[in-house]
Amino acid sequence: MNTNVFLENLKDVPLIFEAELSLYTTYRVGGVAEVLALPESEEQIKHLIDFTKKNKTPFRVLGLGSNILVSDLGLPGVTCCLRNFKNIKIDGNTVNASAGTALDEVVRQSINAGLAGLENLSGIPGSVGGAVFMNAGAFKAETFDKLISFTTITPKGEIKEFKKEDVKYEYRKVWGIDGCVILSATWILDKQDKEILKTRREEILQSRAAKQPLEYPSAGSVFKRPVGAYASKLIDECGLRGLSVGGAQVSTKHAGFIINYQNATAQDIYNLIKEVQKIVKEKTGFTLEPEQIFWGKFK
Ligand SMILES: Cc1cc2nc3c(=O)[nH]c(=O)nc-3n(C[C@H](O)[C@H](O)[C@H](O)COP(=O)(O)OP(=O)(O)OC[C@H]3O[C@@H](n4cnc5c(N)ncnc54)[C@H](O)[C@@H]3O)c2cc1C
Fold it and tell me: Is the CB of 100 within 6 Å of ligand 1?
């Protein structure tokens, strides 16, 4: 679509044309977005949804890009990044945060308010929207544990609140919200001594730094945990630590991570994911299902 059509119709929304998506994803790879929208309000998000729907323009919502592999060939239409749509409200035991807020900031502020229940999620580098979308979790805790509700804009453009009890969710999967844009989430937490919570947070951050290759770009664990096994253990047992395709490498520090070791392309990472799946299937019989989301075209 012509740039002027976007400019004329979306003049209230911050837009970047031909935006380098490697700057908006933690793998630091990927081509350009035809249009990257960076809305700061619910009205702007709604406007984008209405405009793209009316014009049959592709529309995608991006959080902090920490669970996505974007094709080197880029993305048509509007990529709507919520990183500037952020706010945290703490009222008594209730914590509410807008979708673009960094989950880790919600954790940090909850702890400072002496509220327990999110501390095990310390260090997950995604947004609130991304965490709700896939029920992100770590250290035996999940986003949904203490969540009570979240608000969305449905594909029809209506605002809808989902109560936790009305939603089916499990490990890294939430049903019934496809096509919805998550706007905010609310948790009810428990009062606890903040020094105890701060110590727990420190332990978790240290454990992450010790085990994960945080010094390289990645998107965290590539594969979901298969029933009855651990993906990283299977990959390790197959001797795949350090396996490389182009500039992508199975981390030697944590076999569940693929890192952008040396100027990898998205296609390098994609090919390495396929190679790992193939070898693990052949050698162990387990099928590794990616936790990460692929956007755009891959060969
Ligand atoms: C170093 C590292 C460590 C990690 N550790 C963990 C971990 O311990 N546990 C864990 O679960 N994950 C982990 N991850 C993965 C990632 O941080 C989480 O999956 C996170 O929840 C993704 O959030 P995001 O905002 O980055 O989502 P994105 O990557 O931007 O998007 C992921 C998906 O969520 C959708 N989405 C994002 N925002 C919205 C919204 N507002 N409304 C609707 N859909 C939306 C997108 O459309 C996309 O389909 C790690 C990643 C890295 C890089």
Answer: no
Please identify, among 49, 81, 113, the residue that sits at the C-terminal boundary of a domain. 81
Residue 31: CB within 6 Å of ligand 1? no
Terminal alpha carbon distance of the chain: 25
Domain coverage including residue 184 = 88-208
Domain CATH code at residue 30 = 3.30.43.10
- Cα of 60 to ligand 1 centre, how many Å? 14
Task: Among 27, 48, 81, give the residue marking a domain's end.
Answer: 81
The three-state secondary structure class of 185 is: strand
Which CATH number belongs to the domain containing residue 186 in this structure? Answer: 3.30.465.10
Closest alpha carbon to 258 in 248, 270, 267, 266: 248
Q: What is the pLDDT of residues 192-210, one digit of tens each?
A: 999 999 999 999 999 999 9
pLDDT at residue 2 above 80? no
Q: Does any ligand 1 atom lie closer than 6 A to the CB of residue 131?
A: yes
Closest atom of ligand 1 to 181 CA is 42
**Closest Cα to atom 35 of ligand 1:** 130
